[in-house]
Amino acid sequence: MGRWTLHLSVGIALVAVLLTCSYAEENYCFASRASSCSECLQAGVGCAYCSEETYNGPRCDLHKNIIVHGCQAASIITVKSSREILKSESIDVNLQKSQVSPQSTMMTFLPGEEKNMTVQVFAPEKGPLDLYILMDFSNSMEDDLTNLKNMGKDLASLVKKLSNDYTIGFGEFVDKVIEPQTDMRPIKLKQPWPNSDPPFAFKNVIKLTSNVGEFTQELQKERISGNLDAPEGGFDAILQAAVCGDKIGWREGSTHLLVFSTESAFHYEADGANVLAGVLPRNDEQCHLDKDGSYTKATEQDYPSIPTLVRLLGKNNIIPIFAVTDHSYTYYQKLKEYFPIAEVGLLQQDSSNILEVMETAFTNIRAKMSIRAEDRPKAFEAKFLKESGQIAKYGEFNFQPGKIGSFVTQLKAQRMIDENHVCKMDPNENKRVMRVKPTTFSTGVMVDASILCPTCDCEKSPIRNAPRCNGKGDLVCGKCRCHGGWVGPFCNCSGSGSAADINQCKAKETDEPCSGRGECQECGTCICYNPNQFEGPYCEYDKTQCQRHAGFLCNDRGSCVKGQCACSEGWTGNACECPTSSQTCLDSKGVICGGRGKCVCGRCECSDSGMELTSACEPNFQAQLGVCEGTRTCVQCQAWKTGEMKETEKCDKCPFKVIMVDELKKKEEVIESCSFRDEDDDCTYHYTVDNLKDSEKNDLEVQVLKNKDCPPGSLLWLLPLILFLLLLLALLLLCCWKYCACCKACFQSCLALLPCCRRGRMVGFKEDEYLLRQSLLTSDHLDTPMVRTGPPKGTDVVRWKVTDNVHRGPNHPQALIKPNPKETIPFPISLRLNRLFSESLTHPDSKEGDQLRKEVADNLNELYKQIPGAQKVQKTSFRSQRNAGKRQDYTIMDTVLSAPRSSYPDIVKLTEKNVQSGNFHDMKVVPGYYTVATDREAAGAIEFQEGVESVDVHVPLFVKDEDDDKKQLLVEAVDVPLGIAEIGKRLVNITIIKEHASSVFSFLQPSYTYSRKDGVAKIPVSREIIEDGRTQVAYRSRDLTAKDKKDYLTVEGDLTYLPGETQKIVPVRLLELSEKDGLLEDKQVKQFVMDLSNPRQGAKLGRYPRTTVTIADLPEHSVMAFKKGTQNFTTTDPTYTIPVVRTHSTETPATVKWRTKKAQRFELSGPLKFSPGETEKNIVIDPKAHPRPIQPETFQLELFEPSTNASIGDKKTTVVNVTDGVPRSPEIEQNVHKGFIPMKGTSPGGHLLSPENPKAVATGPRSIRLNWEPPPGNPMGYKVKYWIYGDPEKNAQVLDVKTPHADLTNLYPYCDYEMRVCAYNSVGNGYDTDVVTCQTMEDVPGEPGRLAFNVISPTVTQLSWAEPAETNGNITAYEVIYTPIDDDMKPVGPAKKVKIDNPKKRMLLIENLQNAQTYQYKVRAKNSVGWGPFRDATINLASQPARPLSIPIIPDVPIVDAEAGDEYDGYLMYSNEVLKSPVGSKTPSVSGDDYMNGRWEQNFLFPGGSGTRNLSASSSPMSTLSSNYRGAGGSYTTETTTTYLSGPGGSRRQDLIGGVHTSDVILRKRSENRGYMEENIRDSIVMGDPSSKFPDLDARLAPGIPDTPSRLVFSALGPTALKVSWQEPHCEKDILGYCVLYQLLNGGEMKRINVTNPAQNSVIIQDLLPNHSYLFKVKAQSQEGWGPEREGVITIESAVDPKSPLSPVPGSPFTLSTPSAPGPLVFTALSPDSLQLSWEKPRKPTGEILGYVVTCEQLHGGGDMRTFKVNSDGAETSLTVPKLTENMPYKFKVQAQTTQGFGPEREGIITIESQDGSALSQHSSQSMTRREVFHMPTEVSTRTNISHTTLDDPFFSDGMMMTTQHTETSGMVTRQITKEVVQRGVMGATTVTKKMFYES
Q: CA-CA distances (angstroms) from residue 1298 to 309, 1281, 1891?
């Protein structure tokens, strides 16, 4: 208790003096709550400890904060890290080897510290090279070996070309010489193929040598070998080549290349486990080559894992080059991604191009250099920067060979790792020698980096029983450490005392203990409930109640400590609002306040000078229209005593004194030269203004010319005339007055004409009353004109107000209901901004609008925060106000402020005050206009500018559903606060009549789908008649992802319904798919919306006022067309070459026919055949091959009859113009064919020829510059036509220009445009140029498409998204950010980022999310320009239904662990084809997170010993044991129980490798034996690839027949659209195509899709019904016939319209689910000839279950089918099946019978295999039970209980059962072992049990 109280007291002292960090960073020093000096210094860099005894502040804090709190400098304890260069030799460029400088350095780091190190590197142009060729020697590589033998000279030339100092070696491999990899029959072991060597694993045939002749000679002796299975054992060979450096001959300092040549896939770790050879131990990573170079341990240990190879090749500086054929190219392409540097080259089938592959790979390796930090400890983070300081991406370092380059290494020591401080981790993780090197170098910088965990010397010499500690404790580093039983800061309280004295916890001015903010503890100390808010000995200080400036606590420049702001350095003031520096007060000359004021709180207070001054007290001549205007009045009063300031007191305030001179300086020598006329004497005076030469003063030097320029005095005779005219004017005025008294009308006219006697201007409303019908209203406001009479001079501002429901009397029931003044209501506010209006502000996605909205929100929020209870403004929009006078071009801002109702007067006053000043905080507004409204009243102001006679008042109408049938609003002009106008017509009444609807208009459905081939979408609009009659409604279409004039044509108009009409059709024309869209691989769903609006004649809108129309594209076809619309040739051309291009699906062969039309000399035709991948072919016509002389002519070519998979594009025909020509020189002929010389003949009839040499260049994302050379003649101008590539030319836009260039603007980004130009004159248009194409530049992409979530569990989800509708370029990456948030959308945890560099992978699996936590997910796209905007969504997984069975099993899905770090590399590319990590390994496959970013954790305990190992499946790519147990979400659970019967003293050994027993698998599923495959057999247990771990024990498929397509994948594209994908099956012959069959699960037509392209492995089906289950089958075809099918059943579930169950609700989520089939099936062997079959009840039966039908038959025929009927409706049902045969595979089917009929079948295939148990009768039993839980994508759970009898297990003693339970979840593995005493006697028995079941 005492110890706890001691720590508690220390904590109280720290909390009481809490000082938060500066505003820019987290104060981790104080946050560490360090209890000692050493802990403080170890908290991080910058931390300091105060050891002063009397110090009362936080002892551990940032150094600057401790000083602020008053700690003496001598008492502050700090520590610094160190850096030392151990070896730094300069680079010698004459030394032909890779070099780095420095070579060695040592650094220490404090936790959190970051250091940079510059490294120089040098790579010679031809440095030393070791080239080792490792070749597959299986029989299929025989022709490859022959070719390599014949390449001796070429190989020598290649290595000499690559290096002047080279060696070359050769190794060969096949596979392990064990079953099933190798045929173990003696004859095959001797010679597996004719003229071949015996099989082997790996041989080092030729050690690295520089003698190429010897290499070639030795190679001739080698012969091919062979093995059985397709994958080879190359990984064994790679590992031995890496670790046997001396036997291979690798040289130090040279570049090591290993060329791995094969045409097959590879075996990897755990492939050594099979039923015949047993489980092999893990590879020991040691060299095992004998004197002949043969690998001796191949049959004794497993293949290495991929992480092992990555690590060992990197450690030995070996760069792999995979030279493989197309059969296995994709495997190695994915494998390459896991190596820091590697290359893959595509070999021809006979490897004849292997030298070219090697040379290309070597070039690529040198061009893609990157930097690595090898052996980096976990506590360090490494980044590598370019010389510019930018972080370099992989492969971005381009060091030129032969030149010295450099890079910067940035090392940062972590503070915390997995919530553990680095100083508390394993020392090996804090200190290590790293090697920093380029990936192609064999040498690097050795960096000895370590974390510095300092200790304080003062802790070693404490003051025992110190007086300061009342003798009850030791003084350690200035702080008391109390003895047992004593607590308190000074050890003055007994820890064993009674309850705390509450009075000691009370402050003087309070009655509550701890101020009611904390808990009173022993010794009278307070523990504050919320230390982050309250502090002080009695929790009396609130850290949020210090003074604020600009809304920020302590101006965000300090911390709130004990009720006062403790300002950061450089700031002072009560709210830290004043900078201590006077830098902000300096004028342009550096003088404080220009010498005219003083600097107060960072701002100048200027003395009164009578002039406009700047903020730095400089004369503000700009505000006074210039220097001359600013100095005029002062010069006039000082020099001549005239003008506005001639009074002495005003003139004395002038900031300068004039100097009278006889001659002024030249204009070039002064700031300004000024001249003005003096109004007093009509003379002109002149002066100059300049700065004083003394730079210390900021006064002006004003020199005035002594003499004025006055006019001559001859005009004095005008004075009598002027006096006479004045008298005459007075007489006229008197007459007018008399006359006006008689006629009032004339009186007002006279006032208007004679300002000297008028009463003034009048303002008022134009009308007295408005009568409105609510059904006809199109706006919630009414623009009510106010007019002004009288002379429109000057400005008048009129305030107005409006009151709702004035027709209700004071006793009206609604008037008696008083609103709640504290109720928060919206206040619509309108202001006029001081900026011109532009249409872009009305677009919600415009950048200009977004910026202005943010500016408005920031300034209004800052201003209105003065209103208590006010919230942030929202719904900000912009508009223009017509009839607003001279300022109607300014922007009107409308927004909504939420605040208490009672604050309405305050909001009006505050708004009016700031409008008058012209500033809303820092935002400029135009005075004279505002509106503030509630839900029942409003107030505002409008402005009449000079010359304006009418202005509209934007009056809100307060239309509400609860309004009376007839209501009145009263609008009143209140007063004129600015101006002289008087109010005339003050009031206007607005009456609104609510009418009941006579008709209701609505679309029939919320969505429609039409195909492009329909041509027209016919959308019905229904009318519900309430009162019959004639009525109208408006309609209009609007773009979503479908674009106007690209996918459809926009429609807009009115529908008129006559009496009795209830429905009308709106036709919308659908356009064919453009070529550009056809080129996009991932087509977006094209949609547009149709809106109804403005119902008239008393009608209103009904349930569906909007409908979404989806345009379904036809299946992809090749599109063939002529490249040009016009072809030009001359009679001298030898041939006419007309190109035809092909777009869209180019991967399949296609044909089209062509023919000539209207030709004079010939009629030709023929076919054009496009091969796969071919995009252009030419039609070549030889004019000399036909009779009759060649002469000018014009004819056409036409394309027709395309093949079924193709269509003809817009350019179906082309015009061929043959003009007269003269023979050309070869140079001219070449230029003509290149298009540099126009092929136009002489223009007949005066038409101009085409302009020459047109060139188009993109000048931006939305602009193109087109230039050309003028044609001969005198063109009056040019017409430029341009259109989007693929659109018909008739849709082109035409631009008329007068110059030989044109700027095309407002184009689409990253879009291909075609254009042509012609000149014109008085005759007309001339000839067009040929089409010129140009592509606009890229722009940032738009936001990604809708985010979709597949919820796997409350902590795991699969996030997917669509490509942006506007990619504006090639998408290169996506970024996903997910953040935990609260109900207010505020983050409650750190945001995690994941960058996905493959733009095709628009999917991410996120694991280890917090349970029941809401997350915000944001996704944005990137192209070459940059990042686009985010698309975001918010979801709580716990509130969503989990659909684990619906997740598509897709390879290469990025997986990210939400508990991992924040770096971009915190995820892995998951691929089931390439990688799997060992489940049963004793040691991890990686040594650190450098390679696979993996966390390996495993706990396993054996009797008598213990071991520890960690494995995280969420970080490794996959956890696999004979099949994929780890995938893109979901889980697969396997429970295995194995019973071993053994007796004492025996000698049998049962191997345990990593916890995996090497026992025989007794009960086998069909998917584990490829020999069991046959058509129509569906494996409903494992959804992935069939395992190939077992030998072919039974009859195989016929040779050449394809296997079952593996990994059937379903991906929902919409509620009715599905993508079905599969992986190519194994086949010994070429696959010719596939067949996809599908039908409704409950019967119906079987639909078939034939896929003739073998490269296509997916189809899209769009005609499915929502919420209906479908059965899919996929099979492959070869020359030998069709292979077996892969089946899958799937349902797309979505919300549908209740009135139309087959119509999904637009925008609603859709998910995949599995059907309601029985099972899966569970088999339990009872004896060698009987088993028990059990299954579970269907999850969703089609009706009430009556029973089940079970059928059993031998898989390969040969017996009768047996049928069983089971009457049961329980949750689990079982059946015993007798009379079976051992070692015979059986197929079982279970089908549920319901009241609706028979449901789908569940199949299972099983074999009971026997073992020899004859010697087991005399031994007692041992039992070992093991349970394992893995994850699989399909949420399948399999439990297997295997019990079999064994002999003499040495691991266990008699009478003991060992139970191991292994449970793996996302990221954690635990094992528990218990012991039980078991006695069991078995006589010659064999027991096999296997249970399998699904978990949903």
A: 69, 14, 86
DSSP secondary structure letter of residue 1568 = G
One-letter amino acid of 1412: A
The number of angstroms, rounded, from the C-alpha of 664 to the middle of its chain's C-alpha atoms is 69
In 1247-1346, which residue ranges form alpha helices assigned H by DSSP? Answer: none
Confidence band of 58 (pLDDT split at 50, 70, 90): confident
Q: Residue 858 is encoded by which pair of tokens?
A: 């920031």
Sequence letter at residue 852? L
Among the ranges given (74-78, 1193-1197, 1221-1225, 1511-1515), the one the predictor scored with the smallest mean pLDDT? 1511-1515
Task: Convert the pLDDT of each residue in 845-882 to its tens digit.
Answer: 788 888 899 999 999 998 898 888 888 898 899 988 87
Q: From the CB of residue 1660, how many other CB atoms can be counted at a distance below 10 Å? A: 16
Measure the CA–CA gap between 119 and 1782, rounded to whole angstroms.
70
CB 207 within 8 A of CB 295: no
Burial of 302 (0-12, 13-18, 19+ CB in 10 A): buried
d(CA 1539, CA 1805): 24
Sheet holding 343-347, edge to edge: 202-209, 166-173, 129-136, 255-262, 318-325, 343-347
CA separation, residue 343 to residues 338, 365, 823, 1130, 1469 (Å)? 11, 7, 69, 51, 18
* SS3 assignment, position 649: helix
Residue 1057 Cα distances to 547, 1028, 1065, angstroms: 67, 10, 11
Return the SS3 of 654.
coil
Q: What angle do CA 1779, 1780, 1783 make, to 5 degrees?
A: 155
Rg (CA), the chain: 45
Distance CA 1763, CA 1788 (A): 10
- Bond into 180 cis (ω within 30): yes
The phi and psi torsions of 147 (rounded to 5 degrees) equal -65, -40
| CA distances, 1469 to each of 1356, 1395, 1404, 1474, 1609 (Å) | 17, 12, 10, 11, 18
Alpha-carbon distance 1836 to 1669, whole Å? 20
CA diameter of the chain: 154
Residue pointed to by tokens 């092999």: 280
Using alpha carbons only, give the angle 1030, 1036, 1038 rounded to the nearest 5 degrees: 165
What is the dihedral sign for C-alpha 358, 362, 368, 371?
A: positive
Question: Structure tokens of 1060?
Answer: 């009795």
Q: Where are the beta strands (DSSP E) in 872-959?
A: 874-879, 890-900, 919-920, 923-933, 937-944, 950-956
User: How many CA atoms are closer than 13 Å to the CA of 826, on its beta-carbon side?
Assistant: 11
Strand residue runs (E) in 326-430: 343-347, 371-374, 380-385, 404-413, 416-417, 420-421
| Beta strand 874-879 pairing with 564-567 | unpaired
Q: Please give the single-letter amino acid code of residue 1780.
A: L
Which tokens is 1133 given?
């051309």
Residue 65 confidence class, pLDDT cut points 50, 70, 90:
confident
DSSP secondary structure code for residue 142 in this structure:
H
The C-alpha angle with vertex 603 and arms to 601 and 607, in degrees rounded to 5, equals: 115
Q: If we measure between CA atoms, which residue out of 1641, 1614, 1643 comes closest to residue 1716?
A: 1641
Q: Nearest CA to 978 among 911, 915, 1026?
A: 915
237 in Cβ contact with 173 (< 8 Å): yes
What phi and psi values does residue 835 have, to the nearest 5 degrees? -155, 150
| Residue (of 261, 137, 234) closest to 195 by Cα position | 137
SS3 677: strand
Angstrom distance (rounded) from CA 1079 to CA 259? 37
Residue 319 CB burial class (10 angstroms; 0-12, 13-18, ≥19): buried
Do the bridges between strand 1016-1025 and strand 1118-1122 make them parallel or antiparallel, or are there none, so unpaired? unpaired
CA distance 453 to 1063: 82
Q: Would the pLDDT of 1406 be above 70?
A: yes
Look-up: residue for tokens 């590992």?
A: 239
